[in-house]
Specification:
Belongs to the glutaminase family. This protein has 14 helices and eight strands. By secondary structure, the chain is of the alpha+beta class. It has two domains: 8-64 and 199-296, 3-Layer(aba) Sandwich (Beta-lactamase); 66-198, 3-Layer(aba) Sandwich (Beta-lactamase). It has a five-stranded antiparallel beta sheet, sandwiched between helices. Bound molecules: glutamine (GLN).
Length: 302
């Protein structure tokens, strides 16, 4: 079966079922702006073939947080090539939380993969341009031009993130400087924070996903494959393996409650629901993607 057979009526019904799961999650309390949103929000969009299905709170903008990580990887694969990128980060899954520094210390070298904080922070060192703002603006323009989206920096969210001590990410950046993977930890952290605060609607997230799901005249197919494989193995942090079995699709989550699932060669499922589980994945979003994948037999392994 394919994503294209999904009807608006079934989609609406499953989104209503998913909304119950918002009660099972919690808002991340470590970023003040994210702690203040309505935890019952839920928006979802499916893009497949010529079909667009949308349901829920579709007008609600949200910050992408870690859902930006696969796109940072794609950008750098395109800008500087795979050889340079994978000198900076590995391709191995991690069974530790997204902000862990334990493996970084133990491995004395590259972060395990680009889907965790250490990997993305390390990758900022490869971005063209000298300041965090210029780097973020160039990256944002690249994405908007290619995906026909309108994502932009949410300055309030950035102020909120900047108000935090941010000790863990700072420690990660410092360790990366010690390993000669970064020149300046403050620049890396500022760039990373700005990237995480890029914001859009569910339609923007779905459009971004198409950059990975379908052939694109300006993006290498090999780079799409590389990013998708790393999403499947690492995109949901320490539960990536479990969801590779249960869902079988490349996915990426962010602590804002954004969740993107790629259905290779077919389309995308984008969700936003800010109540997250203890790993940092949207509870209602995961329910919805799992439901769609099982009902429509979307696993890449079927
Ligand atoms: N900015 C967030 C952080 O570094 C992103 C993490 C996430 O979305 N999982 O903590």
């Amino acid at each position: 079966m394919t994503l294209a057979v999904l009807t608006q009526a079934d989609f609406d019904a499953w989104v209503i079922q998913a909304r119950r799961f918002t009660l099972q999650g919690r808002l991340p309390d470590y970023i003040p702006q994210l702690a203040q949103v309505d935890s019952r929000l839920l928006a979802a969009q499916v893009l497949a073939e010529t079909q667009t299905l949308a349901a829920g709170d579709v007008a609600q903008p949200f910050v992408l947080m870690s859902v930006i990580k696969p796109f940072l990887l794609l950008y750098l694969l395109e800008q500087v090539g795979a050889e340079r990128v994978f000198q900076q980060v590995g391709m191995q899954p991690s069974d530790l939380p997204f902000h862990s520094i334990v493996q970084l210390k133990a491995d004395h070298s590259r972060p395990r993969n680009p889907m965790i904080n250490s990997g993305a922070i390390a990758l900022t060192g490869l971005m063209p341009k000298a300041s965090g703002s210029d780097r973020c603006a160039a990256f944002c323009k690249w994405l908007n031009d290619l995906a026909h989206t309108q994502i932009e920096l949410d300055q309030n969210a950035l102020n909120s993130v900047r108000s935090l001590p941010n000790e863990t990410n700072r420690a990660i950046a410092d360790l990366l400087v010690q390993s000669d993977l970064l020149d300046r930890s403050d620049l890396a952290l500022d760039t990373y924070n700005q990237l995480c605060c890029l914001s859009g609607t569910i339609a923007d997230l779905a459009q971004l996903g198409l950059l990975l799901a379908k052939p694109h005249p300006e993006i290498s197919h090999l780079h799409q494959q590389t990013v998708s494989a790393l999403m499947l193995t690492c995109g949901l942090y320490e539960v990536s393996g479990i969801f590779a079995v249960k869902v079988g699709l490349p996915m990426k989550s962010g602590v804002s409650g954004a969740l993107l699932a790629i259905v290779p060669k077919q389309g995308v499922i984008a969700c936003y629901s800010p109540a997250i589980d203890r790993i940092g994945n949207s509870v209602a979003g995961l329910f919805l993607v799992e439901k769609l994948a099982q009902e429509l037999k979307l696993s890449v392994f079927c």
